[in-house]
Amino acid sequence: MNDRKRQRLHKQSEKRYADLGLENDEFVVTDVGRHPLGRLRVWAAIILIVALFLFAAWFFAIEMPDFTEVNFFLAIICVVVAFITPLAGIVAVRDYDNDWMVVTNLRLIQNIRHTVFASENQEIGLDGIEDISFRQTDPLQKIFNYGSLRLSTIGDEHTYIFTYVSNPAEQVKLIRKTVTEYHEKRVHGKS
């Protein structure tokens, strides 16, 4: 890759990924995308929970043989929980959408939100990546072409996993190619 193309890619990456703090000559190779089915999984769980609590409220209010204040109180709690649960879904989807992984020509950067208050930002130099693989464990993952991306590092042998990756086989090929080019450039001094 010539210097002019590298500078053009660097400027484009700086504009689009201003918060990454890219070094001179560094550019984004791929932004590892998440599959929309991850959001669907969250909403399916939320719908199930809401349905269960509404059923419990109906049971306590209508079906119990002797309607007491305790039954009424339990029915109210179930209804309140059923109406609050979608807020948890909104937060979970927001966290899912805020998880990201970017691969540059020098490093891999991953941000994972565990909860509303806890997030983890990890950065690995391409020279520290030992193994790159993906996993698709069920027929839905094959049909809808998503899976988990797995990266292992040299030395501390830490494993990084990014789930619900769209088109994981292509992502692995691209990351492998980038890591190989990085090593060749370092070993042979190629541009």
Structure description:
The protein has 191 residues and is of the alpha+beta class. It folds into two domains: 3-34 and 99-188, Pleckstrin-homology domain (PH domain)/Phosphotyrosine-binding domain (PTB) (PH-domain like, Roll), CATH 2.30.29; 40-94. Helices cover 51% and strands 25% of the residues. It is built from five helices and seven strands. It has helices spanning 3-16, 37-63, 69-97, 139-144, 168-188, and strands at residues 28-32, 100-104, 107-113, 119-125, 129-135, 146-153, 159-166. The strands form two sheets. Strands 1-2-3-4 form a four-stranded antiparallel beta sheet. A three-stranded antiparallel beta sheet has the order 5-6-7. The longest helix has 29 residues, at 69-97. It starts with a helix and ends with a helix.
